Amino acid sequence: MVEKNTKDNRNYFHYKAKNIPFRFAVSSAKYAIQKSKYKDIEIEVLYEPKHYQNISHLMKSIKNTMLYCETNFGKYPFKTIRFAEISSFTRGFAATAYPATIYINEKQFHLNLTQGEGQDTINELAAHELSHQWWGHNAQMSPDYREGSGVLVETLEQYTQLMLYKNEYGNEKMLEMVKLYQDMFDSEKAFSGEEPLLT
Ligand SMILES: [Zn+2]
Question: Whole-angstrom Cα distance, residue 84 to residue 122?
Fold first, then answer.
């Protein structure tokens, strides 16, 4: 940030970036912030103060993902990683990744993980969205939109997500997840037409 000032009871911020990759993210709210570090990378989780329940679990999942991805795929390309909660008025996604910033919808953010079918959505979202910093439209690759590009943008994230789930909950639980996604694929393809998995 270059400058901040207040005028007529409004806050004004002036930012300057050396270079902006494919896209960038801005959000504004009265956030609480939890900070931590993975090696020399700053981790920040910005959240609605009442939704503190999953923060430490999210922080742990972020660090596990950083370790897995740096060990297997290479160095994280930014100095910070921010996870920010956004309003459930935002529709169309559970979470989404921008360079160095990840948004999670509040519906997912403060789920009661001890209830329901025992699926660890926080682990899945942290692993999937954070691995987009290696795979997909962020800093390290930006495939042309054409047949087969989905493998680079989503399939490798999905793989990373499953590996992190396996590390946490074992092979059997991970295979249950694969079955879940297979069922989703089979039911969705009726609407969008079958696309070959390998192109
Ligand atoms: Zn994704």
Answer: 13
| Structure confidence by residue, pLDDT tens digits, 47-71 | 999 999 999 999 999 999 999 999 9
Instruction: Please report the domains of the chain, with CATH numbers, ordered by start residue.
Output: 17-192 (1.10.390.10)
pLDDT above 70: percentage of residues in the chain: 92
**pLDDT tens, position by position, 19-50:** 776 677 788 899 999 999 999 999 999 999 99
Alpha carbons 106 and 85: distance in angstroms, whole number: 6
Contact 160, 68 (CB under 8 A): yes
Question: Distance, CA 102 to ligand 1 centroid (Å)?
Answer: 11
Instruction: Give the span between the Cα atoms of 119 and 183, in whole angstroms.
Output: 16
For 126, the token pair is 């942290």
129 C-alpha to center of ligand 1: Å? 6
- Counting other chains too, the contacts that 16-20 makes at CB distance below 8 Å and 24 or more residues apart are none
Cα(194) to centroid of ligand 1, in Å?
20
Phi, psi of 112 (to 5 degrees): -85, 100
Q: What was the pLDDT predicted at 5?
A: 93
Separation between Cα atoms, residue 151 and residue 87, nearest integer Å: 30
Q: What is the pTM of this model?
A: 0.86
